[in-house]
Amino acid sequence: MTFSIERKVVFLLAQVVLCLASLKAGAAESVDTIEEAARKSVREAEPFKPKLRAEFLRLAAVGEFPILGLSDPSDAPHADFADALAIFDIGLKPLKAFDGSMDPVKLVDQIDQVMYVVSADGKKISLAVVERQPTNEWVAVSFGDATIAPKVSHALAQSMIPPPAISSVRFLVRVPALNATFIGRRNGNSFDLTAISSNILGMAEGDTLPARTVFLSMAPIARRLNGYPT
To answer: DSSP letter at 1?
Structure first.
């Protein structure tokens, strides 16, 4: 009987060790930085671009060209899908809890979408968004926003002032509950946000502030909101 109990104890200890090892491995796999996650999404969505272009051409051919930012369907073949940006969201619940001691990067949640700025004849004409499916395939989920595309392009340019001392990564950051959207930039340890449009904080289009400053200003506003999606 004693031998049986000892064997059970050893077995249980072994299971605990295995569980701890598994948790440690899982933690190691989940520590990708936001810039690594952004690069990975853009890289993995890249092979889908031919299908994205084909869908763009199809929509233009069936009369949807105005939504695509085109004045004529014959302009569709000249469209270029550039400035790929991984999309990240910030939920209302974590924003309410944010204080100056927290890492602002921790608020940002990747949603497996990538946005492209569509240009033609040197003009930014619309946006296209693709999304990763459970099958790991990417599909187009939206086209349009012709009025927003130039603002995104402007914010991208402003986000590079001053030029980074080292390689930086840019991505889209949305705060749906406060109707605010930014170009995020990670440059070393810094995390800055450039407003795409004027927002609830009084930031004008193209204004850039540290993410910590933006979130600290947003947190009190978020706490006053009730009944909004988290």
So the answer is: -
